[in-house]
Amino acid sequence: MIIGIGGVSRSGKTTLANQLRNQLGINEVKIISQDDFTYPQSDLPIYNGIVDWEHPDGIDFSALKKTLIEQSKKYTHLIVEGFLIYHSLEIRSLIDFKIFITINKNTFLNRKAEDNRWGETPSSYISYIWDSYLKFGTIDNISIDLLLKGSEPFKVAAITREIVKRSKNNHS
Fold first, then answer.
1. Do residues 58 and 33 lie in contact, with contact meaning Cβ atoms separated by under 8 Å?
2. pTM over 0.85
3. Which terminus in the chain has less CB density within 10 A, N or C?
């Protein structure tokens, strides 16, 4: 079963993926991050002189698709997470259980201001991240199985039960 977790940067996608992996069984679950499928930095689009990590043109969706297909044969549960995973129809069609995490703009701005993984991020680019999310990463007209609020604790046990239930139904 392939589980997708989408949402804006800093919404809690990786946190939830790790929590689900711990609940479902570390040896039974593989987490795949969309971020691992960005093209080389030299091939990425540029926004105001800054490398644009927030545009669909920066993601190698065909390599991501190939990896999802290959890895889904090796693991009981495969979790793919990233803010653009629902942008690609091909990727979206592979996902059996779609989760989306929402946060409001102020929560995003506050969390992003504390995020120094890649050094100082100009405020204009932080605003651009939010705008890119609204343009490319939202779920308008997409059927989502579970919508979560990233500002609240995740009910991981309940989510895990639903995944296990649906996984059993898919194999029946």
1. no
2. yes
3. C
- 159 secondary structure, DSSP code: H
Neighbours of 165 (CB within 10 A): 10
46 - beta bridge partners? Answer: 51
Is the pLDDT score of 171 beyond 70? Answer: no
Q: Please say whether the beta carbons of 34 and 85 come within 8 A.
A: yes
Backbone angles phi, psi at 98, to 5 degrees: -100, 120
Reference 145, options 104, 98, 83; nearest CA is: 98
* Residue 83, number of CB atoms within 10 A of its CB: 26
DSSP state of 80: E
DSSP readout, 4-65? EEEESTTSSHHHHHHHHHHHH-GGGEEEEEGGGGBPPGGGS-EETTEE-TTSGGGB-HHHHH
Give 126-137 pLDDT, tens digit per residue.
888 898 898 898
